[in-house]
Amino acid sequence: MNIKQLQDLRAEKEAAMANIVETRGENMDAGALATIKSFKDEIAQIDMNIEGITELRSVALKASAPVEVRKEDAQVELRGAFVKYAKAGGFNEYETRAATLVGDGANIVPDVFVRDLQEKILEFGSLYGATKKMVTADNGSVQIPTIDDTANAGAWTDEGGAYNVSDFSTGSITMDAWKLTTGMQVSEELLKDSYFDIESYLSTAFAQRLARTIETAILNGDGVKKPEGIIGDAGTKLYTSAASGSVTSTDILTAVYELQPTARQNAVIYVSDDLMKDLALEVDGNGRPLLQTANGATAADRVKTTIGGYPVEVNNSLAAVAASSVSCIIGDPKRYMVRTVSNVQVKRDEYSDMGTGMVNFYCHSRLDGKVVNANDSFVKIVTAV
Q1: pLDDT at residue 33, as a whole number
Q2: pLDDT at 121
Q3: Which has the closest alpha carbon to 278: 352, 186, 383, 362?
Q4: What is the mean pLDDT of residues 85-99?
Q5: Is 239 strand, coil or helix?
Q6: Number of independent structural domains in the chain
Q7: pLDDT digits over 241-286, tens only?
Q8: Cβ(250)–Cβ(303) under 8 Å?
């Protein structure tokens, strides 16, 4: 019998069984129950026959169809190969084939690992996660244009009158590709533990290290073989707190208005951890906190706070409140661009510390960062002496 005939027979058995149930209702005798059980057994056998025919057809179709490796399947295979590589090192024939399914065989890091690593970097880096991103395929320098059109405006013109045409000020900045590296050791015993999730361990540890380093460079980098930071950028405005040794919410709101209106539209207030504590303790004349917290916010959900309607976020790369220190910056993070070259690279070294039974893992990324808006984009608050 074919599938259609089996399905029709199954429907007949179900109808007959339903008829007995409806006719007898609660007045079932032993004979009726035995008949219902017989129908159930026959239906189960029919289902098995249908499943068997379906599987045979599937096998026949696979055998006759051309072999096609989807990228998703290749990624799953590569992910398994990467875990094996991280735990045991070396590439056998299977692992080499898995790597070449996705890339050139040299890039052994699967997309899913890279995505997980990037997501964790964004999570650990509060400012980096909000910046503008650009990914390029090579290491060469890239020219980024900057435009300043704040001095120009439209004009009301008579019918048939001439258009008021004016040029805008343009410039450019050069984005390089500085190499950021980190490494860690894992014991051979731990790698051999089947319950040890090496993939998650590497992505989390590397992400935390890279995020901290990138975040510090975005704020304080001097541009020498590393990104140029916001604090040292010549276009970043300076505001000095009103009182010696402290920064208040009044200082912050005053500094916000040092920026042009366009720069304030999407401004975020980034503060050091101890400044956030000081702000949380500030109250108005009626004892109400000046630092506003979103309704229902919890520490686990990253408490969202505001001052004057502007979001406030902790950035641990900012300095503690002290004389001449910068414990707060304000501005639109999208006006800072991070250029990254391709994906991160991960390598395994089991030879350098073979005598101690330790395996080294190396990770590197190539990137640069700069403020890319020609208008004023950020203001920094320096604590008065």
Answers
A1: 81
A2: 81
A3: 383
A4: 52
A5: strand
A6: 2
A7: 999 999 999 999 999 999 988 889 899 999 999 999 999 999 888 8
A8: no
With respect to residue 31, please indicate whether it lies within any of the assigned structural domains.
Answer: yes
pLDDT of residue 261: 87
Strand ranges inside the chain, DSSP E: 132-136, 142-148, 169-175, 178-187, 237-244, 268-271, 292-293, 305-307, 310-314, 326-331, 336-349, 358-371, 378-384
- Kindly state whether residue 230 falls inside one of the protein's structural domains: yes
DSSP-derived 3-state class of residue 130: helix
How far is the CA of 175 from the CAs of 199, 229, 371, in angstroms?
31, 13, 10
Residue 128 has pLDDT above 70, yes or no: yes
Poorest-pLDDT segment among 84-98, 297-311, 325-339: 84-98
- What is the domain range of residue 236? 224-384
* Identity of the amino acid at 169: S
Of 214, 226, 310, give the one whose Cα is nearest residue 270. Answer: 310
Domain stop point among 49, 64, 79? 64
In a domain? residue 336: yes
19 burial level (CB within 10 Å; 0-12, 13-18, 19+)? exposed
| DSSP secondary structure string for all residues of 181-222 | EEEEEEEHHHHH-TT--HHHHHHHHHHHHHHHHHHHHHHH-B
Amino acid identity, residue 179? Answer: K
Residue where a domain terminates, one of 38, 64, 90: 64
> 3-state SS of the chain: helix, strand, coil percent to 5?
40, 25, 35
In whole angstroms, what separates CA 12 from the centre of its chain?
55
**What pLDDT band is residue 73 in, cutting at 50, 70 and 90?**
low
For the record, the structure tokens of 62 come out as: 């696979």
Q: Which two tokens stand for residue 136?
A: 């390029």
Q: What CA–CA distance (Å, rounded) separates 56 from 66?
A: 18
The β-bridge relationship of strands 326-331 and 268-271 is: antiparallel
Q: Is the pTM of this model over 0.70?
A: no
Please tell me the predicted confidence (pLDDT) of residue 293: 82
Place of tokens 């090192």: 89
Instruction: Report the half-sphere exposure of 56 (CA within 13 A, side-chain side).
Output: 8
pLDDT digits (tens, 9 = 90+) for 176-231: 999 999 999 999 888 888 778 888 888 888 988 999 999 999 999 999 999 999 99
Question: Which one-letter amino acid corresponds to residue 123?
Answer: E
